[in-house]
Amino acid sequence: MANRIELSAEPRSIVGKKVRFLRREGLVPANVYGHEASTAVQIAAREADITIRRAGRTHLVTLNVAGGESSTVQVKNWQRHPYKGHLLHVDFYRVSMTETLRLDIPLRMVGEAPGLRTTGGMLFQALTTLSVECLPGDIPDGIEVDITGLVDLDSAVHVSDVTIPSGVTLLTDTGDVIVRILPPTVEPETTEEAAETAAEGEQPAGEESNEES
After folding, report:
1. pLDDT digit string, tens, across residues 44-86
2. Beta 60-65 vs 5-11: how paired, if at all?
3. Which domain holds residue 67?
4. More confident residue, 25 or 211
5. Torsions phi, psi for 27 (to 5 deg)
6. Could you write out the three-class secondary structure of 59-104?
7. Which of 81, 88, 107, 170 counts the most CB atoms within 10 A of its CB?
């Protein structure tokens, strides 16, 4: 597991629709819940954005709230503006290092699939994450999927083919397909190509009349 990420926050008294004033000041409203009473905090927007990009939902974060104790949290959810993209709100979940968590771990493709070159097929990834259960200290950064064995059309890597890290219990069905080589798709004939083909098969009207005369 990667090194713990740290994030600073301050207690928040502004709630409801008035939180828009916080955003104008470069702050993001957030809530911390789980194991204790929910706590409203505010975080510098830039720091919150960096933390989310680094931690996602799988890395633990040490949240340092001014005037209070530090908490070990997981980024549970966040909301962004629908078209501007900036953060609107973040939810953090307090975790206990002795209590298991259920979460989705991202999959990482490793190697190259020889079948893509020899068959002209395309790689279809059916799963991007695996659902697991583990203690917070055992959360893996990701799970590797070796695709070097994909040599033929329809060859696939199933969940049962990947190695699950120690201390992690797999919840996803082991029979599920993660990635498969599909047959190449045939490009449909374009309108221009179809028109040229039709024109080549037609004879000019003048030549037809000469043959008849």
Report:
1. 999 999 999 999 989 999 999 999 889 999 999 999 999 999 9
2. parallel
3. 5-94
4. 25
5. -115, 150
6. CEEEEEECCCCEEEEEEEEEEECCCCCCEEEEEEEECCCCCCEEEE
7. 107
